[in-house]
Amino acid sequence: MAKGTERIIMKDISKLKDRREIIEHVLEDLVSLNGDDPHLGYAIKENVDFFKVVASIRNYIVWVIKKAPKLKREQLLELTDLPFPHWDQKMHFKLIELEKRKFPGLIEPLVRKIYRFIHEETKRLLILVDFGFGGMEVERQVIERLTENPSDKKLVFIGFDKSSITHEIAKQNLYEFQQTIITEEIEKLTPKILQEVIQSTGNKIVVILAKNNIFRLDKLFARESFDVIFHSLFKHHLGTNEKTLIDKICVSLSKNVFEYDGYKSWFYILFPHTITGWHDPVFLNATIFSDLRYFTKQELKRMNKDTWRLTFSIRGTYLREYH
Questions:
Q1: Tens-digit pLDDT profile for residues 140-165
Q2: What is the 3-class SS of the chain, one letter each residue?
Q3: Could you tell me the pTM of the whole model?
């Protein structure tokens, strides 16, 4: 992941509407990064090539057929993995818009799984943790269903994400439930602070936004501190060693883990994902580069451990569960 690069470029892109104008500004930003970090050289070059070809549908299709299959998954980064908060924000707003749609119901399998878990679990207090929460649309949809069919349990949702941009987006996205939930923003959550929040917030649903390093949470929290850890469209952003580590941390800190992400399919790349993202080149980049970083169904099946249950969706996603 490249969010830790020292130089952060922020600009006002709110007035950019024209597709070609957006592409030009993205290319300016990408070129400005050259030389900042030699480890990002490959990722920057491939992003530059991508935004050049998406000016034309013909050039883009040629790129998908001839160039995309040769890209190196481990070195590939999306534009929003690079230090551009303005493009990150733009992409997340578009993603939330897509996730809200009843069709294709992009995150429905995960939302349904969490909602059922809440109603079926016998414990009176449930702590549900989201790694890399983005805009918290998963939580929003779960809370929406809980307003229609309330639970008698106290629910604490904890989101860990280091990005200040996603914290702001999440707060905006949850604003409609301001009378229903309590939102706490905490730089670094500790077991002591968590207990203080739980004890001081009554029976309302509590949402905690924190910026802890998720790879060190097992050094801070005891085993099985949480009832559920889940993450959505997140794991493909991690390197090989980070993927292994995140599994270890999840299993250590929770009895239940729900991993939700996409699988690689050239049909989805060429058709629904291209069609959905074409008019927004930044979102198209996030979608297609994510697709190229996914594992195929066959790879996921080979890598999956017997202790995890793996199911696939026609949405081009999978749900992997540990209990």
A1: 999 999 999 999 999 999 999 999 99
A2: CCCCCCCCCCCCCCCCCCHHHHHHHHHHHHHHHCCCCHHHHHHHHHHHHHHHHCCCHHHHHHHHHHHHHHCCHHHCCCHHHCCCHHHHHHHHHHHHHHHHCCCCCCCHHHHHHHHHHHHHCCCCEEEEEEECCCCCHHHHHHHHHHHHCCCCCEEEEEEECCCHHHHHHHHHHCHHHCCCEEEEEECCCCHHHHHHHHHHCCCCEEEEEECCCHHHHHHCCCCCCECEEEEECCHHHCCHHHHHHHHHHHHHHECCEEEEEECCCHHHHHCHHHHHHCCCHHHHHHHHHHHHHCCCHHHHHHHCCCCEEEEECCCCEEEEEEC
A3: 0.94
